[in-house]
Amino acid sequence: MSNRAKASDKSSDEASDEAIVKAPDPSSAPRLGARQDRARQTYHKLMDAAAKVVGDEGYAGASIAKIVAEAGMATGTFYNYFADRQALFDALLPHVGHELVDHISLALREQGNAVATGPEREVARFRAFCDYLSDNPGFYRILYEAEVFAPRAHAEHIRRLVDGYRRSLERSAERRELKGYSPEEFETVALLLLGARSYVAMRYILGGEKTSRGRRRRGTPVPEAVISAYARLISGGLLGKPG
Q1: How many CB atoms lie under 10 A from the CB of residue 180?
Q2: How many CA atoms lie within 13 A of 216 on its CB side?
Q3: Phi-psi region at 182: left, alpha or beta (left = phi > 0; alpha = psi -120 to 50)
Q4: 204 contacts: CB under 8 Å, gap ≥ 6
Q5: What pTM, to 2 d.p., does this model score?
Q6: Are the beta carbons of 54 and 63 closer than 8 angstroms?
Q7: CA distance 164 to 161
Q8: Residue 58 backbone class (left: φ over 0; alpha: ψ -120 to 50; beta: rest)
Q9: Ordered DSSP codes for 101-158
Q10: Which pLDDT tens digit goes with each residue over 184-195?
Q11: Are 131 and 218 in contact (CB under 8 A)?
Q12: 3-state class of 18 per DSSP?
């Protein structure tokens, strides 16, 4: 997985985006004398290795031996941070979910005034989402299989995702960018937009090119026509003025 983005200055939109999914604090994990920053790096290296293994082989095929081998660590290091494999599974979806949100928030900050309006922000979020999934196609396997292998993490991830999206829509309404919808409808709108993202990912990313070993090829971009179609739908149907 990609490195988590770091920045201190955030707009209210970006801060809310980052609050959608909160990863566990690795500083609370046992360190056995290691310095905190090194412990944090080790924790993230383990989590990134787990994301790679689970993304490629699923939770059922993700043994501790495979994860530590991917991370280039000894098995004993794993148990400094996790009591067992299930403890890691429970932390994995929040970890990668936070990475995704960080990636989207960083993309919005980098574009600055170019995403000043509601439709521009939403399309920028969608593009950043597609870019992240293109580079990390295992994300959706981690997400979908978590419903069975890490149900509490899955339920909390979905709740935080929907709540964060709903708050973003509420701010759009306060800025008069979102018209004709009642506050009671915002959660449904959030679910519809998240569903659109899921099906785009399923069609163009998860169903895209694969390597000779059958794994999804990383770095395959979503066609620009997909982005433009989403932009037209959002600007003309949700955040735009009535025709």
Answers
A1: 9
A2: 27
A3: beta
A4: 130, 222, 223, 226
A5: 0.75
A6: no
A7: 5
A8: left
A9: HHHHHHHHHHHGGGG-SHHHHHHHHHHHHHHHHHH-TTHHHHHHHHHHHSHHHHHHHH
A10: 999 999 999 999
A11: no
A12: helix
